Amino acid sequence: MEALARPAVMKQSTILIIEDDADIVELLQYNLTKEGFRVRVARDGDSGLHEARRYRPDLILLDLMLPGVDGLEVCRRLKRDSDLSSTPVLMVTAKAEESDVVSGLEMGADDYLSKPFSPRELLARVRAVLRRGQSSSEHEKARLEFGGVVLDRPRHEVTVDDRLVEFTRAEFRLLWALGSSPGRVFARDELVEFITGGEAHISDRNVDVHVSAIRKKLEPYSDLVKTVRGVGYKIKD
Q: pTM here?
C-alpha cells in the first residue's frame, strides 16, 4: 500500500482513543503509532474523561457505544469543560442512524468515522480534523459585531448583550461565516463547507439543525439569522 504523506507538524500530536472494543483499539493504535502520533487509550467513558484532563490531547477519537458513561455524554462533558472545550473530537461509531451523528455534532464533535473503516480513511479524517484546528488557530481574526451580538474568534466566544453564551465549534463557524458577510445569502452546501472544511460528510439537514440551535442561543436577536427559502441563510444587513 502506498504510504500516506506525514506532515511533520502532526507527528508529535497526542491522540486519545476512548474505545472499549479491543480489536478496534488495536487497529487504531497500530495505524496511528505507525504514522508518528502519540497514542493514549481509555476503555470507558469515565476513564476517557480522566485521561483527557490528564494528558490534554490534540485530538480525541471517541466511540459512541461505551460502557457506563456513553460517548454522547462524554462529548457533552468535554465541551462543557473550559480546559477541553476546544479539543477536537472525532466520533467513531458503528451506529448508522443519522440522529446519532446529528446529536454528536450538536454537542460539538468535529467529525465522525463509521465502522468499519480503512486505515487510509482513518488517517485522512484524523489529519483533516487536526489541520482544521491548526488552521483556525493560525488565522484568527479579531471579532464581529451585529446587533447586540459579538463574536470573538481568538477566544472562540459569543456574547449576547454582554452575556457569554456557549456555542459549539460548528455553531461558531457557521455564525462566523454568516456574520462575515451581512446580507449575503449562503447556500446550505456552502455552509457545510464552512463547518467541515470540505473534509467531512454531513447532510444539508445538519445545517438546519445548527441554525435552529444558533437562533435559540441568540435570543432576543434570533431574527438576525434569516431563512431564504429554497436557498439557505443570511445575516440581516
A: 0.57
